[in-house]
Specification:
heterodimer; A: 257 residues; five-stranded mixed β-sheet; 10 strands; elongated; B: 626 residues; mainly alpha; 0% strand
Chain lengths: 257, 626
């Protein structure tokens, strides 16, 4: 018997067990399948329209890759057990399964593994958060005051002239700081394709920063139930070139006078 | 003296039941309603009049019901120095009383367990029907099945009914019926408190169900202020329900904890105590600090509405963020209150159906304790995007992500127990597999949501809705169905007919995957939660979700019919059909009033499965001498 050549419980002996190999093969397939889900998820979120959304999509993809092997392990053991370890016959099994009550190597290994993964998630998250705080010259930041009002959004431009509009215009590649508030209940200001949102609270001002990176028209929706017409509280943001933005600002200033 | 004990008590106590409760509740409710309308100041200067009338009526109904059902008989008799005699107590326990004992203030824990089970099923039925209305409205982008006001109201009602149902669904039926027998006790530590906790919920349910007739709960189940201050009188129903429910769960929590700590059989040391007991105690233990937060949040909300206090009114020194904090201080521990008992019920099932000992009992306990401890430290991850305290986002991200470590331990215990088992695939075990799958998806999507930048994109979207349904429904409710299938022979004395129950379960699972796949889809595409209509862009995902939801409902109907039919006409169950080792399977069917004729003595843990095995002998050094 091979037990003479290899100590029971050694790694070499363990990986020679036939069921371990089967589970290993299933694990590879399941892990790859979950990993393949990452690009699907990313494409469902649409093209990124801001630096912030780039970070979100990167995070979702990398977290999927990190979780895949762990989820794959649970699924492959469960799947294998349904076929390889299934009791034959309809009635109660007469034979018992393995008497294993614990295995300190496995428990410690699992704890260490999950802790390392947890630290990786945390470090990634913290790095991503600080990334969004760094960057350009504060003097170049545009400021827009956002006011939520059952059930419309209003945008007050203070820096670039003094006017209000229900449709947001932003210049491409320039950071914008939103000062967000509400006149009635809590709303949540969400620029969908830019991956950012912040609640609009009555009599408080909250802040949110975003740097648009794509030209086009994107969606703004309210993400906090705010009463009867919550679902109708949406508008658009137009991200335009710097020169077009200037033209738009001038026309708005003209009409405001 | 002997004369006195033999004298049959003729007091009105023996005439009280749910019927007299309802009658007296209605009487007191209408009386107070009349008085309030007559004497409370009204008119343009008194904007709070309406809420005052409604709140006082509801409280009067609840008080009247509790008096009428006999909840105060014990304290009253004690106060009158005529404490309950042995005969009275036996009568209260429902000795030889037939089915009538299910409709009165019965103290027998087995009766309370069945009452909770039926109540859970009724609430799940109502909540599920509301979910069908919601999904029907959302089957098309601009549907007019129900109007926006009704839609918002149904969303709130569905949410809170399901939250209450899932909180009581395991610790109610199984924590009351099974747990005392499992630890070798003759009843709960406080049998009258046990009945009290159930009948309080019974008193609260009509109040909650009255909400749609009072303008509905238009705020979602979170009832954020100041939206809740604007909301119609249905909000008062929500507030009163929560206050009563918090009392009920505090009473139940104290009772289950005391029972588990003090009433375990001789020889049942902590390392011989079944893992279900740990999970049930952890669950009600978390509720003890969490639910008072909920209660306080609703008392403040009620005072804002009915008295013009300004706890949450930012124009008068209050803050909506105060509400959000109080709410989530309950709201996040609460998901573990729901999840833990369902998971530990499955941990009882896995060893039995794998014919293997629970893998690393200690890791399971560590997982439960870790989750319990961390669950009270993660609440503000619901508030990353609220703007309340941006500097706290990083610490809350830390605590939230750490909770994946003890949760991971529970996964290890599951797959370690399955490992090289002799798997007996019956409905309870199928539920274990379903929960492993669902909880993995719920867990991984939870990792994305715990990350602050990713949550800024996903928060408030259908993605979150799909995520928490995977945990609360996919893991919680599915686990509860597994537990019901497992303990059905003990609860009813009959076998559940798996010829229908298993297909019904699988149909529900299939529908579940489809429903929430569609919801993840539209969430990633950017559909907000709680919208009555949506962009045409989300049409396909919503259609998928609605079809899935109808599938769940269809499966659930078959399941319900099967359960009722098996309960009435099923095959008579042997005392221990699964070959389990926990004590509840050692008592005969039907279970005697005081469970054990002889108090049991425990000499080992209930997971003594397994034959010596050439492979595992080497892998586990502690067991080499076997």
């Amino acid at each position: 018997m091979s037990t003479k050549e290899r100590k029971l419980g050694s790694v070499g002996e363990f990986i020679r067990r036939p069921y371990v190999r089967h589970i290993f093969i299933i694990w590879i397939f399941v892990t790859i399948a979950i990993g393949l889900f990452a690009p699907v998820q990313s494409s469902l979120m649409g093209n990124s329209a801001s630096l912030e959304m780039d970070v979100v999509k990167e995070t979702m993809t990398i977290f999927t890759f990190w979780s895949a092997p762990v989820a794959g392990l649970v699924i492959s053991v469960a799947l294998y057990s349904l076929f390889g370890w299934r009791s034959q016959g309809e009635t109660a099994p007469t034979e018992d399964g393995s008497p294993m009550r614990s295995n300190s190597k496995v428990v410690v290994g699992w704890l260490v593994g999950s802790s390392i993964l947890c630290v990786m998630l945390l470090v990634w998250g913290l790095a991503a958060m600080s990334e969004s705080h760094n960057g350009s010259d504060p003097a170049k930041i545009h400021t827009v005051n956002v006011v939520g009002n059952q059930w419309v959004w209003n945008f007050d431009y203070k820096d670039d002239g003094n006017f209000s509009t229900p449709v947001l215009y932003l210049p491409i590649d320039e950071p914008v700081m939103f000062n967000i508030s509400s006149v009635d209940v809590i709303h949540s200001f969400w620029i969908v394709e830019m991956g950012v949102k912040m609640d609009a609270n009555p009599h408080e001002t909250t802040h949110m920063r975003v740097t648009p990176t794509e030209l086009g028209i994107f969606n703004i929706r309210c993400a906090e139930l705010c009463g009867l017409n919550h679902s109708a509280m949406f508008t658009k943001v137009h991200v335009v070139s710097k020169s077009d933005y200037k033209v738009w600002v001038d026309s708005m200033k003209g009409s405001a006078q | 003296m002997s004369n006195e004990t033999h004298k049959k008590s003729k007091g009105i106590m023996r005439k009280l039941n749910a019927g007299t409760g309802v009658a007296f509740g209605l009487l007191l409710g209408f009386t107070v309603n009349y008085l309030a309308r007559k004497y409370l100041a009204q008119g343009d200067d008194f904007p709070f009049y309406g809420d005052q009338v409604i709140i006082s009526t509801m409280l009067a109904w609840a008080l009247g019901f509790m008096i009428g059902v006999g909840a105060f008989v014990g304290p009253y008799r004690w106060l009158m120095n005529r404490d309950l005699s042995y005969e009275d107590q036996m009568w209260l326990a429902g000795k030889d009383a037939g089915t009538a004992r299910y409709f009165r203030f019965t103290t027998d824990h087995k009766v309370v367990g069945i009452q909770y089970l039926v109540m859970t099923m009724v609430l799940l039925g109502v909540g599920g029907t509301l979910a069908m209305m919601i999904r029907t409205q959302l089957s098309m982008p601009n549907n007019h099945f129900i109007n926006h006001s009704m839609y918002n109201s149904f969303v709130g009602l569905h949410g809170i009914i399901m939250i209450i149902a899932t909180i009581i669904m395991v610790t109610g039926p199984f924590g009351n019926f099974i747990l005392p027998i499992m630890i070798g006790a003759r009843d709960m530590a406080f049998p009258r408190l046990n009945a009290l906790s159930f009948w309080l919920i019974f008193a609260a349910v009509p109040i909650l169900l009255a909400a749609p007739f009072l303008g509905g709960i238009s705020t979602g189940w979170t009832a954020y202020a100041p939206l809740s201050t604007q909301a119609p009188a249905g909000m008062d129903a929500y507030i009163i329900t929560i206050i009563i429910f918090a009392v009920s769960s505090a009473v139940a929590g104290a009772n289950i904890t005391t029972t588990a700590v003090t009433m375990r059989a001789r020889g049942m040391t902590w390392d011989r105590t079944p893992i279900f007991v740990y999970g049930a105690v952890a669950s009600v233990g978390v509720a003890i600090p969490a639910f008072p937060m909920f209660m306080a949040s609703q008392i403040f909300s009620g005072l804002d509405r009915a008295m013009g206090a300004s706890f949450y009114d930012a124009t008068n020194g209050g803050s909506g963020w105060l509400y959000a904090n109080l709410f989530w201080l309950m709201g996040h521990p609460e998901v573990y209150v729901i999840l833990l008992p369902a998971l530990v019920a499955l941990l009882e099932i896995v060893p039995v159906f794998s014919r293997s000992p629970l893998f690393s009992f200690n890791a399971a306990v560590a997982g439960i304790v870790g989750i319990t401890g961390l669950s009270v430290l993660v609440w503000a991850h619901h508030m990353y995007a609220s703007g309340w305290a941006p500097n706290l986002n990083a610490p809350f991200m830390l605590t939230t992500e750490i909770i994946s470590i003890p949760t991971g331990l529970l996964f290890l215990v599951f797959i370690g127990t399955i490992w090289r088992g002799n798997i007996w695939v019956r409905l309870p075990m199928i539920a274990v597999y379903a929960v492993l799958w669902n909880f993995l998806i719920g867990g991984i999507t939870g990792i994305y949501l715990s990350d602050v930048p990713a949550d800024m994109a996903l928060h408030g979207s259908m993605y979150v809705t799909a995520h928490f349904h995977y945990t609360l429904m996919g893991a919680g409710l599915t686990g509860m169905i597994g537990a019901t299938a497992y303990w059905f022979p003990k609860l009813t004395g009959r076998m559940l007919n798996e010829k229908f129950a298993t297909p019904a379960f699988l149909i529900m699972q299939l529908g579940f995957q489809v429903t929430f796949f569609g919801m993840f889809l539209v969430g990633l595409e950017g559909q907000p939660r709680r919208v009555a209509m949506y962009d045409i862009l989300f049409a396909n995902g919503n259609k998928i979700s609605t079809m899935g939801a109808y599938t769940i409902f269809f499966g659930a109907l078959i399941m319900l019919v099967t359960i009722i039919d098996s309960w009435r006409n099923g095959d008579v169950a042997p005392a221990n059909p699964w070959g389990s080792q926990t004590l509840e399977w050692k008592v005969p069917n039907p279970i005697p009033l005081e469970n054990f004729l002889v108090p049991p003595v425990v000499t080992g843990d209930p997971y003594q499965f397994g034959k010596p095995d050439i492979y595992d002998l080497g892998a586990d050094k502690e067991k080499v001498e076997v």
